[in-house]
Amino acid sequence: MFNMKKLFFLGFVLAFNTIAFAISSTANKTKIEIAVTTSNIAEIVLQIGATSVNVNVLTDPKISQKENDSIERNAETIQKSNLILRYGSETWVDKFKENSEYKNKIYKIIKTQGNLMIPYLHIRASEEIKTILSNIDPKNTAYYQDNAANYVYNIHFTAEKIKKDLSKAYGVKIIANQQIKDLLEDYGFDIIAIYGNELTGRKLAYLMNTAKRNGIKMIVGSLQETSPIGKIITEKTKIPYIAVSNITIENSYIDTLRNNADKLKKILD
After folding, report:
1. Residue 119 above 90 pLDDT?
2. Can you give the pLDDT at residue 70?
3. How many domains does the chain fold into?
4. In-domain check, residue 15
5. Which of 107, 134, 243, 264 is deepest in the core (most CB within 10 A)?
6. Is residue 118 part of a domain?
């Protein structure tokens, strides 16, 4: 009888441990749901978090800022997210943070300021995001550290090659869209004038005169710009126009960098 009880007890313990292990294994496969405000941040999170995260981008460059900012548009995504990552300038996220329905989320601001298409800023933001993920999911810290190290290495390698490919850019005078200005300056271009999304007759005249008097070699627009100003200047001056991306598109951030560089190099050559 004693042996039967002992056998029953051992069987119970074995069954309990099997169930506990199954629950633990399932829990380890649970992904962190993360909402981000731009595709540049999304790319970093995906590269470092990899199989441990699900990422949703809250903003869409093809629609108006007002639509992007709307609570209705983003409510479902925020609701299912554990973590919300953004820049400090996107104050509309505070609407959710202050709402009792969404207060139980983790809200983090990326402190790295500037255009994250610029490699050294992208790397700096990657270090921040690696730390954020490690802090909220410490059991996977080593995984995030390895992924971040590989990602940073690939960015360094790509950035060095692009610098060589665009060595002719140093001192080349251009007119550029203000969204892409910082990235082009990092490559060494001499930006003589910039334009935004609004154009007056006076502004157009100024840009055309600037182009003719300063030996402008190209007009560089942003793929995300919402007006044809760059193309209008090209039509009037016959100076080549190209558009490069100010955010991660293509298959990845690195692919976007390469694609941008290929377009610029083609005109420089």
Report:
1. yes
2. 58
3. 2
4. no
5. 264
6. yes
